[in-house]
Design a protein that fits this description.
With 333 residues, the protein is of the alpha/beta class. The chain contains eleven helices and ten strands.
């Protein structure tokens, strides 16, 4: 099946043909571009100079329906929306404010990319704060994007695309390219940054937010080390992608200039210990599953989960004393 989507900018549409195929074994790149070109319209899509192409906007829901096996982030999307958004929002809001100070998002020609938006914390904030800003929310997970589509935000287009292969999107497209808490989880963060450089306009602005640590993992590490003193948390990223000293160099290596970094501390204030348990064990977050699933597979859940809960209650204020470190990074092309 071939789906053609339209990315609108004044007088120009980006025409993208994406080949859809069934996924298996969590293939990280299930939707590869087979064709892209620019087509200029005089008045409407019907007057396109490429009449042989049938214009049709695929939704995340339609892609979900066609894929028999879901990506892990699709599985996590519903729980992510209810149990994770509140911990990513403070960093995202701080990044948007800093980026807007450097390069106003209210400018008439501004065009924003939310790369790896998840369920739409940044997208919704941008829409609320800058009502006339056109936004593209691009994510590999149709399940995540479906949550954004349901919000029916004006001037927001959702695109299923791999952060490491944004080629359905034309070079030099966005004045502002943002990504919060995604780059370090991508299969190759260096390529993801290079792709963001490619799609950003000359003199355009990059904004990133990355974890330096995962606060909710701390009580799990304490729990696991009661059984294995040498236990190391199996992060999905290498340590240097959570290091404030190496991150600016990686951004510069991708081609960006004037790289600046700020460290922020965010308190994950859970209302109760039960909220922490739900966040860690029931959010279906692939990052957390990597931590506890190998133990659960060995039949340890009944033994370890009560210990985890006891540690949260006694050492982390019942969920109100989680401090997370995050890095905000801005740069220009």
């Amino acid at each position: 099946m071939v789906a053609v989507s339209l990315m609108q900018r004044p007088a120009t549409y980006l025409v993208t043909s994406v080949s859809l195929r069934a996924t298996s074994n969590f293939d990280p790149t299930p939707y590869r571009p087979t064709l892209y070109r620019r087509a200029t319209f005089t008045d409407s899509p019907e007057s396109c100079s490429v009449p042989s192409l049938r214009f049709f906007m695929p939704t995340a829901a339609s892609l979900m329906a066609e894929s028999p096996k879901l990506d892990p982030w699709d599985v996590a999307s519903s729980a992510y929306a209810t149990k994770t958004e509140h911990v990513t929002r403070p960093g995202a809001e701080a990044l948007i404010s800093w980026l807007d100070d450097l390069s106003p998002l209210s400018h008439a020609n501004a065009f924003a990319l939310d790369n790896g938006p998840g369920t739409g914390v940044v997208t919704a904030s941008l829409r609320s704060r800058f009502p006339h800003l056109p936004i593209v929310a691009a994510d590999l997970s149709p399940g995540m994007l479906e949550h954004i589509e349901k919000k029916q935000l004006p001037q927001v287009q959702c695109k299923v695309v791999d952060a490491n292969d944004l080629h359905p999107i034309a070079t030099d497209t966005f004045t502002h390219s943002l990504s919060t808490f995604m780059i370090q989880f991508s299969s190759d963060p260096r390529i993801a940054l290079q792709e963001m450089y490619r799609v950003t306009t000359p003199n355009g602005t990059l904004g990133l937010c990355m974890w330096g640590e995962i606060a909710a993992a701390a009580p799990w590490v304490e729990t696991a080390r009661l059984f294995d003193p040498d236990y190391v948390y199996p992060h999905t990223w290498t340590p240097d992608w959570g290091d404030q000293h190496t991150l600016p160099r990686y951004v510069a290596d991708a081609g960006f200039k004037d790289v600046k970094l700020r460290t922020v501390r965010a308190r994950w204030d859970f209302p109760s210990p039960e909220e922490v348990f739900q966040f860690y064990f029931e959010s279906k977050n692939p990052e957390f599953i990597r931590g506890y699933q190998p133990w659960w597979d060995r039949g340890m859940e009944g033994t370890m989960r009560p210990i985890f809960e006891k540690i949260v209650r006694e050492r982390y204020g019942g969920g109100k004393e989680f401090d997370a470190e995050a890095f905000l990074i801005v740069a220009t092309k």
